[in-house]
Specification:
heterodimer, A: 294 residues, mainly alpha, 73% helix, B: mainly alpha, MetI-like fold, 0% strand
């Protein structure tokens, strides 16, 4: 008999007698509610309620036509935002998946060191990280120099202000959010499954596709959301590294929020951003197969 | 059916090369931040390397507005960490230990802030503050940051304490300890590592956050907001000096936490052996 099993054996009869159940707060029905109430109320008042009022505000003065106005006025910006967010998410998968795979399966005793390197960027504040990208991509900086010397850019061309600069920095800023969930799902993977597949004459490529990739889908899904959502709502990268040609939805909200608090169009724009992301998430979940994500 | 060995070798090597490239991609901008804290920029902007200098480090408080903003950020981070850690831990505990009605709904409300663009969260909160005519400043920043931090804390604590042996609590109660004493002597030590991790995450998130904070800050400036406001007039080397100092402090704290946790794990292992 293990030590852990002992108390439960002795406890059971006491409970049936009634014991001091009523005196122990931990066993009352409302205990969970007491624990939830403070944080729950905070979220209700400062998260759920404002979202509803934002939705209501977006329908003032014109109802749904606010949305059609916003969409037709900003169609280029809206499309550009989603293109940038999609490309940077794909780039984050291409860079992040192999990285997470190597750390999880071949990291060995350096696993924690690698992971520490992945989260290191979080120790420098977001704005300063983005400023470092500005240094890296500056007109006479190292990246431009290399690209000029191998002839991708000619001598007068720079990178700052281009879509490439914005997308590269977006990819960078949210890459750890891609690596970490994928790492977690690969870390949990039972290596014996791969041995079994090899024993049953599966090629490594097929085993990867059928086992590793499939079992890491939940991580890939979480990582995609955690990268795509902040990228689609961002205005810092395009403001610091972009130009008039790279304006994103977030910048339009940022430029106007100070002066036109109650302009319904602005609420409609931010609500639409949220709605489009939600739709994207649902479509993406369907594509990957919901049962494999849950 | 199996690819030849030389092909697999090439595959292995290129996988490693690609992974190292990924790490460099993550690492280089941080290195740039540190290196450029030793620059002596020619103009007002610390964007182009000029020459090595310790001027930023010997005169870190040259721009009072930047120093004040950093102190303001640290104050906010402390307050937010305390409030969010308490509220989030209680919620995490409730989600792990109890079954109750509407648990699914509460879980969804906890996750939702993490799946929404910051600009929508910040903007909707701002419209609330504006509609009730609440002037923005310290208090509204704390409210905004606690709002998204609670979710992070609850999720972290929840993940870290799942599967614990809660019968230890019942044993303590059965042996006559009061509920309060049981909480201090049994529950808290059990959940401590998860809570500490969540608190550190909250502190880092608070210092890091820009978008939500910026929308709800009014005239008060946190460190990132101050940089944002300065971006058209000057980007002094002191920004890099402060960031590098914070980076070093964070690394030391994280290392200490790892060492502490390892010691604790060894001690616990020792206990269960005897």
């Amino acid at each position: 008999m293990t030590a852990a099993a002992a108390p439960s054996r002795f406890r059971r009869p006491r409970r049936e007698n009634g014991g001091d159940d009523t005196g122990v707060a931990a066993r009352r029905w409302f205990t969970p509610w007491l624990l939830i109430a403070p944080g729950g109320l905070w979220l209700l008042i400062f998260f759920v309620f404002p979202l509803f009022s934002l939705g209501r505000l977006s329908l003032q003065d014109g109802g749904l036509s606010n949305y059609s106005t916003v969409i037709s006025d900003n169609s280029t910006v809206i499309i550009r935002t989603f293109v940038y967010a999609t490309i940077s998410t794909l780039a984050a998968i291409i860079i992040g998946y192999p990285l997470a795979y190597v750390i999880a399966t071949k990291g060995g005793k350096y696993k924690n060191l690698f992971l520490a390197l992945v989260i290191l960027p979080f120790f420098v504040t977001y704005l300063v990280r983005t400023l470092s990208w500005k240094i890296l991509l500056f007109d006479n900086g190292p990246v431009v120099g290399i690209l000029q010397s191998i002839g991708i850019l000619n001598d007068s061309q720079g990178i700052l202000g281009s879509p490439f600069a914005v997308v590269a920095a977006l990819t960078y800023n949210f890459l750890p959010f891609m690596v970490l969930p994928i790492y977690v799902s690969l870390e949990k993977l039972d290596r014996h499954l791969l041995d079994a597949a090899a024993d049953l004459y599966s090629s490594p490529a097929r085993a990867f596709r059928k086992i590793t990739l499939r079992l890491s889908l939940p991580g890939l899904f979480a990582g995609t959301l955690l990268t795509f959502i902040p990228a689609a709502g961002d205005f810092v990268n395009s403001e610091l590294l972009g130009s008039d040609r790279t304006v994103m939805i977030g910048q339009i909200i940022e430029k106007n929020f100070g002066k036109e608090f109650f302009r319904p169009e602005l609420s409609a724009l931010s609500f639409m951003l949220m709605a489009m992301i939600l739709v994207g998430v649902i479509v993406y979940a369907r594509l990957l197969g919901t049962e494999e994500i849950a | 059916m199996n690819p030849p060995n030389w092909l697999r070798a090439i595959g292995r090597v290129s996988l490693w090369v690609w992974a190292v490239f990924g790490l460099l991609f993550l690492f280089t901008p941080i290195l740039v931040t540190v290196i450029y804290s030793f620059n002596e920029p020619t103009g007002k902007y610390n964007y182009v390397w000029n020459k090595f200098s310790l001027s930023g480090w010997t005169d870190p408080f040259k721009y009072p507005e930047l120093t004040d903003a950093l102190i303001f950020s640290l104050k906010i981070a402390v307050v937010v960490t305390v409030i969010a850690t308490v509220l989030g831990t209680l919620m995490g505990l409730a989600m792990v230990k109890y079954k109750f009605r509407a648990k699914g709904t509460i879980g969804a409300i906890l996750i939702l802030p993490l799946t929404m663009p910051e600009i929508v969260l910040g903007f909707s909160l701002l419209t609330l503050f504006v509609s009730i005519n609440w002037s923005r400043g310290f208090l509204t920043i704390v409210i905004a940051q606690v709002m998204f931090s609670v979710s992070y804390v609850a999720t972290t604590v929840r993940a870290r304490i799942r599967g614990f042996d809660w019968r230890l609590e019942e044993a303590s109660l059965d042996l006559g300890a009061s509920a309060l004493r049981t909480f201090y002597k049994v529950t808290l030590p059990l959940i401590a590592p998860g809570v500490v991790a969540a608190a550190m995450l909250t502190f880092a998130l608070s210092l890091d956050d820009f978008i939500i904070t910026y929308l709800n800050s009014g005239l008060d400036n946190t460190f990132p907001i101050q940089i944002w406001n300065m971006k058209r007039s000057k980007i002094p080397v002191q920004i890099n000096v402060f960031s590098t100092a914070l980076l070093i402090i964070s690394i030391v704290l994280a290392a200490l936490l790892v060492i502490f946790n390892n010691r604790r794990a060894q001690k616990l292992a020792g206990l269960s052996d005897s």
